[in-house]
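Consider the tokenized backbone below.
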């Protein structure tokens, strides 16, 4: 089995990479059968973005602070672990933005697309689903659309729902909403087109972020699931991603 080992810049991850390469060899990602990512969840997300076009499965080992998308790090029996692994396909979100100057930009997000106010003043947003206005004026610190895999991250900290991996839904979660006072978000079919329009971008500027890419001073943001751009993550069978997401709903800490 041909492995391409990639690691975060931390000393512990680089040391682990050296030991794994000594044991199993290493090939460039273009020649690999599996990419092995060493680090935390942030590094895993970067690996998915960088190598997505190769259409290779990615097996992660936790060598960072957060490892929800990673497996336990160990040196022995890597080929056997990969062969026994369960696959989870993650479908990213496609974000398209238009800023106040008319510039357009696109990006993918495997966790969430979020809009956040840029100043001390609350954002005023119009929320539309499939081109139908649902909230004419949402007053808030921001709003996000999260994937099932991302529902346990920023979405959860904003009191959004945890989504089962195979539920074919997305979470639409406001961040510190003020008006409408009772609105706490929605669960959307995964094919929903979400359009967010900034009502006063001059006085109340808003930024949009897709995982790592931030666009400042946006006027309009559209978000939909990129069904044709899925990536395959591999998980040890005793703790696969579907089970982790289920267990997270009962976590005490």
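A designed sequence for it:
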């Amino acid at each position: 089995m041909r492995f391409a080992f990639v690691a975060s810049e931390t000393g512990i991850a680089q040391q682990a990479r050296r030991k794994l390469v000594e044991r199993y060899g290493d090939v460039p990602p273009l020649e690999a059968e599996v990419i092995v990512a060493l680090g935390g969840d942030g590094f895993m997300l970067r690996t998915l973005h960088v190598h997505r076009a190769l259409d290779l499965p990615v097996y992660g080992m936790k060598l960072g602070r957060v490892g929800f998308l990673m497996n336990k790090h160990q040196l022995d029996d890597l080929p056997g672990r990969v062969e026994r692994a369960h696959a989870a396909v993650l479908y990213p979100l496609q974000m398209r933005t238009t800023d106040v100057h008319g510039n357009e930009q696109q990006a993918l997000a495997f966790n969430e697309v979020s809009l956040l106010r840029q100043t001390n003043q609350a954002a005023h947003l119009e929320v539309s689903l499939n081109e139908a206005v649902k909230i004419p004026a949402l007053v808030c610190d921001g709003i996000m659309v999260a994937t099932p895999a991302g529902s346990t991250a920023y979405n959860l900290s904003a009191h959004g729902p945890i989504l089962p991996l195979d539920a074919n839904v997305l979470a639409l979660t406001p961040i510190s909403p003020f008006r409408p006072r009772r609105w706490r978000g929605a669960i959307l079919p995964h094919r929903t087109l979400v359009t967010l329009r900034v009502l006063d971008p001059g006085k109340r500027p808003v930024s949009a972020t897709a995982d790592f890419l931030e666009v400042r001073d946006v006027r309009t943001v559209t978000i939909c699931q990129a069904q044709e751009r899925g990536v395959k993550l591999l998980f040890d069978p005793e703790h696969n991603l579907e089970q982790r997401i289920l267990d997270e709903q009962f976590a005490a800490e």
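The radius of gyration is 19 Å.
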